[in-house]
Specification:
The protein has about 350 residues and is α+β, with helices and mostly antiparallel strands. The protein folds into 2 domains: about 150 residues, PurM-like, N-terminal domain (60s Ribosomal Protein L30, Chain: A), CATH 3.30.1330.10; about 160 residues, PurM-like C-terminal domain (Phosphoribosyl-aminoimidazole Synthetase, Chain A, domain 2, Alpha-Beta Complex). The protein is about 35% helix and about 25% strand. The chain is built from 11 helices and 14 strands. The strands form 4 sheets. Strands 10-12-7-13-11-14 form a 6-stranded mixed β-sheet. A 4-stranded mixed β-sheet has the order 3-6-4-5, covered by helices on one side. The longest helix is centred in the middle third of the chain and has 18 residues. It starts with 12 loop residues before the first helix and ends with a strand. The mean pLDDT is about 95.
Length: about 350
């Protein structure tokens, strides 16, 4: 009898097969037109939808960052799958694309089927919110690469947009207004700084902050903006969209602007959610550092003509119960791409 086996080396093929069987009905919930075949093939098949004259595919990939460390430590991994989908799908949405399908990569030292199933259940919920299908993925057991109980996630999303409907900021002109769509919290950015603050200061994550525990604030899943952007498209011509992700306002707002345009952000236009005030005060974080690290309560910015601003705010409130606000405007660039 052989002395060595794959399972003895730390890779349990049976556990992997059990996970695939466990998640098949979860993935089936996300099925949409265009999906060909089922889970388990070497490649996932998807048919490009009909009705496009010049379809352009848009792709994106991302992870959850060190928010995952916090979720694992607190055994609250159910929401990180939503984070994973949102961080990828939101980046596609800013181009005007409709997310089509999603694949995940789950890597761990030793597969825990129950934990993995919780995570993938969250991924499926995220896909349902994004309107895309979970059509495949990869689960990798890699002994000695990860500490026991740890795992990592990556996501891959593909969307589609009509070439004439691509949102790239080229139509922006001075006088256009920037609408802010509220975030659900820090989303999945800045957690290395957050964890340094709570670790160095031995913060009690059960401490209450504006009616919720700090832990609840920090593990709230990233908001998906598909419904908000769909409502806005019915109301106005969207000229530009910016996802406030890693790098905060300072790094991301310039990405939506043509070379001749600048964005002016009015910091007095909104009250930041309690978790951001808490982070700034507890960590003694400089205001500029907050703006280049976090979304500070504004997860996505949408540029429209000034004449459409109020109608857009009304539509979001009446259709979705979302309280958006005008956070700034577009100006002619003289020096910096963004001013506060």
């Amino acid at each position: 009898m052989s002395k060595y086996t794959y399972k003895g080396a730390g890779v349990d093929i049976d556990a992997g097969a059990a996970l695939v069987e466990r998640i098949a009905p979860i993935a089936a919930r996300t099925r949409r037109s265009g999906v060909l075949g089922a889970l388990g093939g070497f490649g996932a098949l998807f048919e490009i939808p009909s009705g496009y004259r010049h379809p352009v595919l848009v792709s994106g990939t991302d992870g959850v960052g060190t928010k995952l460390r916090l979720a694992i430590d607190l055994d609250r991994v159910d929401g990180v799958g939503i984070d994973l989908v949102a961080m990828c799908a939101n980046d596609l949405l800013v181009t005007g694309a409709d997310p089509l399908f999603f694949l995940d990569y789950y890597a761990t030292a030793q597969l825990d089927v129950e934990v993995a199933a919780r995570v993938i259940e969250g991924i499926a919920k995220g896909c349902e919110h994004a309107g895309c299908a979970l059509i495949g993925g990869e689960t990798a057991e890699m002994p000695d690469m990860y500490a026991p109980g740890d795992f990592d996630l990556a996501g891959f999303c593909v969307g589609i947009v009509e070439a004439t409907d691509i949102i790239d900021g080229h139509a922006l002109v001075p006088g256009d207004v920037l609408l802010a769509l509220p975030s659900s919290g820090p989303h999945s950015n800045g957690y290395s700084l957050i964890r340094r603050v709570i670790g160095d200061l031995d913060v009690d994550l059960g401490e209450q902050l504006d009616g919720r525990s700090i832990g609840d604030w920090l593990l709230e899943p990233t908001r998906l903006y598909r419904a908000e952007l769909a409502a806005l498209r019915k109301t106005a011509h969207i000229k530009g969209v910016c996802h406030i992700t890693g790098g905060g306002f300072v790094e991301n707002v310039p990405r939506m602007l043509p070379r001749a345009a600048a964005a002016a952000i009015d910091l007095s236009s909104w009250r930041q959610p309690a978790i951001f005030d808490w982070l700034r005060q507890t960590g003694n974080i400089e205001p500029r550092e907050m703006l280049r690290t976090f979304n500070c309560g504004a997860g996505m910015l949408v540029a429209v003509a000034a004449t459409d601003g109020d109608a857009c705010i009304t539509a979001l409130h009446e259709d979705l119960g979302i309280d958006a606000w005008i956070i700034g405007d577009i100006r002619r660039r003289e020096h910096a791409a963004i001013t506060f």
